[in-house]
Amino acid sequence: MRFSWQRWVSMKWLYPGMGVKRWLLLLMAGITLLSLGTAYVLTDIYRHQPLPRIFYYITLQFMPRLFRALLFGGLGLSAIATSIYQLNVSLLSVFVSPGQQNLAELVYQQRRRERGPRVVAIGGGTGLSSTLRGLKGYTTRLTAIVTVADDGGSSGRLRRELGVLPPGDLRNCIAALADAESLTTQLFQYRFGGGTELNGHSFGNLFITAMAEITGSFERAVEESSRVLAVKGRILPSTLENVTLCAEMIEGETDRPHQIEGESSIPEAGMPIERVFLRPESAHGYPEAVQAILEADLIAIGPGSLYTSVLPNLLIPDITTAIRSSQALKVFVCNVATQRGETDNYSVRDHIEALVRHVGPHLCNYVLANDHLDERLYIGAQSEWVVPDGVPFGEGELLTADLVDRENPWRHDSDKLARRLMQLYQEHKE
To answer: What is the rounded CA–CA span in Å between residue 236 and residue 367?
Structure first.
């Protein structure tokens, strides 16, 4: 393995907050004190003990003392610098592979993230995991608050058969915030097949469920799973109660309300949604999630399925009350594209009107929406762009930006979204 001096030596080592300068100064002070002590001993021996003639030449007494001091000092500094450099190469080559940015840059970025703002992201599904994937590059003080109303697929089966809270959305967040994201995502998202009893289950769901059995609680299972996978941030359920998402939908031309029970059944019904609600309606918020909201500097609500991912969190009274009480900057991130069976033909204004209908007015300071509508949605898409046509008066200021993922234009680009949120936070702070 070949290393270059420039790779390991950088002026960033001297930046404030790196935690390096103080220890370099202590090292230099220690070497100086050790050298003085050694010098005193050698001087005493030199002056009081008879030495062979050869020591006259070894100690360079034929040279002026100033030259001798400079020569020995230079040799000593060279030896110290070389030894520290080689020691760092030997120890840290295990952690920094060829092609990565230099070590000083890695340490600097980590220190910067540790001093980042306290950010809370609220939602579920792919929208929340996409947001987290971008935000983890700016702060490690990141908390995801996730809905537990999912009752479809692998999560629904585990919920019905074992009585655990649905792990699917939390699994996606763990994968997004894990240190080795690509490998962890593949492992956690892996689904068993082959017609066995595990058919359709994802490894991540089974992992979290097994951890709940071992640790004795679902919240502890998520915490320990996050620790094992070196997750950068916290992932918290919005409630620990076994809630069911229900919806009142408008049936046909009669406009008669029709009630649907179950999160997975709502988009499949194919009818306009009048409102959604939780059963029981008085579910209590998870205390740690409430505390995180109250201590946050920035709260991002969405993106995600409006009725089945975002609103189930906000329908918990403790969560909404905490958001209103928090001094954080509050941003509602509107979806890029409509979702079939939930938000057909919805604009930005329609999203906010639905939010107000369910949780009341004046929840957020800003509404962030995409304004890049030139990309073509995939062929056969039953979605359309969410047009940024404004928000109802008093429901925050509408801000727009290019937030589209070019490869998946119906979704947000993680980096674009995170960058705009952090810019907004900095502007608000200043």
So the answer is: 24
Phi, psi of 244 (to 5 degrees): -120, 130
Helix (H, G, I), strand (E, B) or coil at 85: helix
Last residue of a domain, one of 80, 104, 128: 104
Within 110-199, strands assigned E span 119-123, 142-146
User: Could you tell me if residue 43 is inside a domain?
Assistant: yes
The CB-based long-range contact list for 352-356 (8 Å cut-off, 24+ gap) reads: 352/391, 352/392, 352/395, 352/396, 353/392, 354/306, 354/307, 354/311, 355/306, 355/311, 355/314, 355/395, 356/392, 356/395
Residue 402 tokens read as 């290019």
Instruction: Express each pLDDT in 59-98 by its tens digit.
Output: 777 778 788 778 878 888 888 778 777 766 666 665 555 5
Give yes or no for a contact between 232 and 140, defined as CB atoms under 8 angstroms apart.
yes
Which residue in the block uniquely carries the two structure tokens 């006259």?
A: 56
Long-range contacts, 220-227 (Cβ 8 Å, 24+): 222/167, 222/170, 222/174, 225/174, 226/174, 226/177
233, two tokens: 């941030």
Instruction: List CB contacts of 279: < 8 A, sequence separation 6 or more.
Output: 243, 244, 246, 261
CA atoms within 13 A on the CB side of 41: 6
Residues of the domain holding 130: 116-147+238-429
**Is residue 158 in a domain?**
no
CA-based radius of gyration for the chain: 30
Beta strands in 14-132 (DSSP E): 119-123
> What is the distance between the alpha carbons of residues 355 and 375, in angstroms, rounded to a whole number?
27
Contact, 385 vs 374, CB < 8 A? Answer: no
Task: Give Cα 81 distance to the centre of its chain.
Answer: 38
For 98, the token pair is: 């060829």
pLDDT digits (tens, 9 = 90+) for 211-251: 999 998 988 999 888 888 888 899 999 999 999 999 998 87
- The count of structural domains within the chain is 2
The answer to whether 271 and 251 are in contact (CB under 8 A) is yes
Q: How far apart are CA 196 and CA 423, in angstroms?
A: 49
